[in-house]
Structures are given as C-alpha cells and as structure tokens.
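Narrative of activities, Objective 1.

The group set out to show that a structural description can be obtained from nothing but a protein's sequence at a throughput compatible with the screening campaign. Below is one input-output pair from the validation batch, recorded exactly as produced.
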Amino acid sequence: MTTSKPQEVDPAVRAELDRLRDSIDNIDAAVVHMLAERFKCTQQVGHLKAAHQLPPADPSREAHQIARLRRLAENAKLDPAFAEKLLNFVIAEVIRHHERIADGTAATGE
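Output recorded for this entry:
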C-alpha cells in the first residue's frame, strides 16, 4: 500500500470544509434523534397491534407511506428511489420489532 503525502489545503477551503462538515454532523445527529422518536411511536403501535391480535405488517399502510415519501422526496429534490429504499429499511425494522412484541420476546423498555 502506498501512502501519499497530505496535500496542503488553503486555510479558507479548510474552514469552509469544517463548517460544512459541522453542519453534516448536526444533521446526522438530528436524523438519529428523529428516528429514535419514530421508533418510540412504532413501538406503541406494535404493543397496540399485539394487544388486539393485529398482524405486525400492514401492506396497505406501507404502500401508502412509500408513495407519500416518494412524493415528498420529489418535492425536496431528493431521489425518490433512495427515499423508498430508506423507508423500506425502516419498515422492515419496525415489522421485526412488532413481531418480537407479538411473540413476547421484545426487551422491556424497547
């Protein structure tokens, strides 16, 4: 493996990179906190579904949410396919949690 000598970067460019990266870090933190809040809500949904013997997955709701998120992504100039992949990943995790709740294997405080 070859190593390259670090390139000198103009201080103004370095300052702008640092500013942008700080913004990215803040946005990443906000995304994590928003996902945590979303999962708190979906855990409540999972407990409600389990209490009333409803299935963990709701394909109709999921399809509606995917279409809605694709529209939101388009309006935000974000690739709708990327937004759909992200939501599908989140939905799969939510269903996994709902299945664990229904099976009684969910950890307390989850």
